[in-house]
Amino acid sequence: MKVINHIKEIRLKKGISQVKMAEDLQITRQTINAIENNKYNPSLELALKLIAYFDVPIEEMFYLEEALKHKGD
Q1: pLDDT per position as a tens digit, 40-54
Q2: Of the candidates 16, 2, 22, 18, which has an alpha carbon nearest to the alpha carbon of residue 56?
Q3: Which CATH architecture fits 3-71?
Q4: What is the pTM for the complete model shown?
């Protein structure tokens, strides 16, 4: 199963740039780009920081690809 995220959608909705987010979280913009494009899964620590940063429930930010398929059944 693949982990899918809505980080880009949440970030854009809140009007935050990748550069600003990178500075705030002390990570690189390239890391954010890779995570947003599902090329890299964040560590648990970074995932928890992202959830706190955007103040959203975990299920709004991350989900398993399989879970999405079963929702439509």
Answers
A1: 999 999 999 999 999
A2: 16
A3: Orthogonal Bundle (1.10)
A4: 0.84
